[in-house]
Amino acid sequence: MHLFIDTHLDEITYILYENNSIVKKVVEKGREHSKILMPLLKEVLNDKKPKSIIVVNGPGAFTSVRLGVTIAKSLAYTMDIPIRVISSLECIALSVNDEDKIVGFSDNNGYYIGIFNQELELIGEYKYISNKEFEVYNAKYKVITNVELDYLKIIEFCLKKSPINPHKVNPIYVKKLDVEK
Amino acid sequence: MKDVLILSIESSCDETSIAIVKNGCDVVALSILSQMDTHANYGGVVPEIASRMHTENITIVLEDVLNKANMKVSDVDAIAVTAEPGLLGSLLVGVEFAKVLSYVYKKPLIKVNHLIGHIYANKLENKLTFPNLSLIISGGHTELIKMTGDYEFELLGETQDDAIGEAFDKVARVLGLKYPGGPNIEKLAFEGENTYNLPKVLNDESYNFSYSGLKSSVINLVHNETQRGNTINKANLACSFQTAAVNELKRKLELALKNTGIKDVIIAGGVSANKFLRNELTDLCAKYNAKLNYPSFIYCTDNAAMIGAAAYPLYLKGEFANLDLNANSNANIC
Asked: Of A118, B24, B92, B125, which sees the most CB atoms within 10 A?
């Protein structure tokens, strides 16, 4: 059984994958992720040890991503199991059938954007643009948003990738901090 | 009685630290990864960057402390973590990490208050004796507390505005000193004399403190002199400020020594590393036949060993937290 963790926005998603299918999927919305994350994980795992972990390492809400990634890397390190990462934008790109695609999602203040080719390779870098910039950008290049994620495809894609050293698993933030500007 | 080993985690500000402490007093191993050099680039701790670095470093620090102790997490009896007070994002990383350890290894989880940790840092090298007067002095706190037993606190007084360490940092900035401001003021003050006439901090008979007036008077003095084209003797001003700041602690502590007759004093928190302050308070305590206790430098600044010391009485009482434990940025001792 493999554990998939996604906390990149205000939803917590835990999925268990086994024998080529999703055997459990729990989605919980909540403001205080820190109170919910571990009790919910305990319930989902039900004392079973996963074979490996997949975590969505952002971009998204800073604290939410960080807590999901902290839990995932700590679990992988302490349980001594493989861990793989996938970005939130890769998840969206994987769930869309178009060949070349610009995908994005909103965090209310702006949009995270990624451009992918048909091999699902990222073209350039992820970027974060304000809602105003997005209007102009979206009029020029059609950005695919509001995509329903194809978790089965995402998990099977990830399991083909090589695992990463848990120490090196870290969130990607994309959005610049004031002190970095 | 069987030895109790506690693995403790501290991430309330800009140090990622994990320790293994035996029976609340013997440090088996301690690992501290400071982010000070990174934050110095920004002139102070940037909370979001602090949180990011905790996530980057936490499993590395765990590996380091386990190697130092030559132990496994399964060898310890409980997991303790600083859950309050501090920078929320930073605290959350440590809390979530502690919960993972507690879950994976099926160990009880202990929630520790960072300030109580600073007091219990004194237990790592000496015994805590009761009753005592505990003076918590740091970048976020200035509190005078009477302790009558383990985890028995009575707040005598606290700052009405800025914490003493905050005043040090702000004065350091106006004097053009680098972060961390407190130690740099201490260094500069050593080269100067107490020549500037600064106001008394809070001239009353309560146990409360106030540092914003003193801080503002230094900032105003620097601005006025600069506008008039006069040069400031920075070393003398640093010395005058430090003397005024410490004098106020002395005045309130003396009041407490007189009124309570207590003979044991503890200083705790980052500012307690200041040597001038230690010397002044040692002399004051000697006058009242009291003993001033303070930890070694490494246990004065933020570290996880003190969290392990503070967790021990809670372990004995069986006060454990659940996996829904949350962090709290604003919590007091009492």
From this structure: B92
Q: Residue B60 corresponds to which tokens in the numbers above?
A: 């590395």
Interface membership of A32 toward B (CB under 8 Å): yes
- Enumerate the residues of chain B whose CB falls inside 8 A of the CB of residue A32: 326
pLDDT digits (tens, 9 = 90+) for A17-35: 999 999 999 999 977 899 9
> Can you tell me which residue has the tokens 């980057």?
B56
**Are A88 and A144 within 8 A, CB to CB?**
no
Region A113-127 average pLDDT: 94
What's at A85, amino acid-wise?
Answer: V
CATH number for B75? 3.30.420.40
Q: Which amino acid is at A5?
A: I
Structural domains of chain A, with CATH: 2-176 (3.30.420.40)
Give the distance between the most distant pair of CA atoms in chain A.
51
Contact B311, B6 (CB under 8 A): yes
Residue A143 touches partner B, C-beta closer than 8 Å: no
Partners of A24 in the β-ladder: A16
User: In this structure, what DSSP letter does residue B106 have?
Assistant: T
Taking CA–CA distances from B324, the nearest residue in chain A reads A35
Q: Exposure of B195 by Cβ count < 10 A (0-12 exposed, 13-18 middle, 19+ buried)?
A: exposed
What torsion do the CA atoms of B107, B35, B176, B192 make, to the nearest 10 degrees?
70
Tell which residue, B187, B184, B177, B196, has the closest CA to residue B241. B196
Residues B151 and B232 in one domain: yes
- Reading the block at residue B136, the tokens are 């918590």
Strand partners, A17: A2, A22
d(CA A38, CA B98): 10
Is B329 a member of any domain?
no
Min Cα separation B177/chain A (Å): 20
Find out whether B39 and B49 touch, Cβ atoms under 8 Å: yes
Q: Kindly state whether residue B334 falls inside one of the protein's structural domains.
A: no
Residue A104 touches partner B, C-beta closer than 8 Å: no
- What pLDDT score was predicted for residue A40? 97
Do the domain assignments include residue B139?
Answer: yes
Confidence band for A59, pLDDT divided at 50, 70 and 90: very high
pLDDT of B320 reads: 98
B178 close to B224: Cβ distance less than 8 angstroms: no
User: Which residue range is the domain that position B24 belongs to?
Assistant: 5-121+299-317
User: Which of B78-87, B201-210, B271-280 is the least confident region?
Assistant: B201-210
